[in-house]
Amino acid sequence: MLTNEAIEVHLSYLRPAVEAIQAELPALRQEMKALEERLSNKFDQKIDKVDQKVDRVDQKVDKLADRITEMQVNLKGLILFLTTAGLIVSGVSIAHALNWL
User: Fold this and answer.
1) What angle do CA 23, 27, 29 make, to 5 degrees?
2) Torsions phi, psi of 98, nearest 5?
3) Kindly report the CA angle at 10 between 6 and 11, in degrees rounded to 5?
4) Do 27 and 21 meet the contact criterion of CB atoms below 8 Å apart?
5) What confidence tier does 52 reach under pLDDT thresholds 50, 70, 90?
6) pLDDT tier at 45 (50, 70, 90 boundaries)?
7) Quick one: which of 69, 48, 47 has its CA closest to 61?
8) What is the DSSP code (8-state) at residue 79?
9) In whole angstroms, what is the distance from residue 28 CA to residue 34 CA?
10) Pick from 10-19, 57-66, 72-81: least confident
11) Could you say which of 4, 19, 34, 54 has the lowest number of CB atoms within 10 Å?
12) What does DSSP assign to residue 1?
């Protein structure tokens, strides 16, 4: 067990350290706030860059989707044309086989 005098001696050594830390706290808080603002700004800039890249990718995807839709329409038209041409050729072949032509 420590005596009161021993405790006072220990406290007398700790007080200057605690006071020094308390004196540094406002400066440290300002530095931390400045660092937080810098990091926040950098983070926001990076997010903006990523957003811009995502927007460009979205535009490319939209163009690709439009192109695929055009190709599907063209393919449907080609299928319709080939089906119609096949029916006509079949009809002509049947008519030729029956000597109608």
Assistant:
1) 110
2) -90, 5
3) 115
4) no
5) very high
6) very high
7) 69
8) H
9) 10
10) 10-19
11) 4
12) -
98 three-state secondary structure: coil
Full 3-state SS string of 3-70: CHHHHHHHHHHHHHHHHHHHHHHHHHHHHHHHHHHHHHHHHHHHHHHHHHHHHHHHHHHHHHHHHHHH
Structure tokens at 39: 């990091």
Residue 5's pLDDT band, with cuts at 50, 70 and 90, is confident
The whole model's pTM is what?
0.55
The owner of tokens 């440290």 is 28
| Tokens coding 55 | 């927007």
DSSP assigned state of 99: T
Query: CA dihedral in degrees (6, 10, 12, 18; nearest 10)?
Result: -160
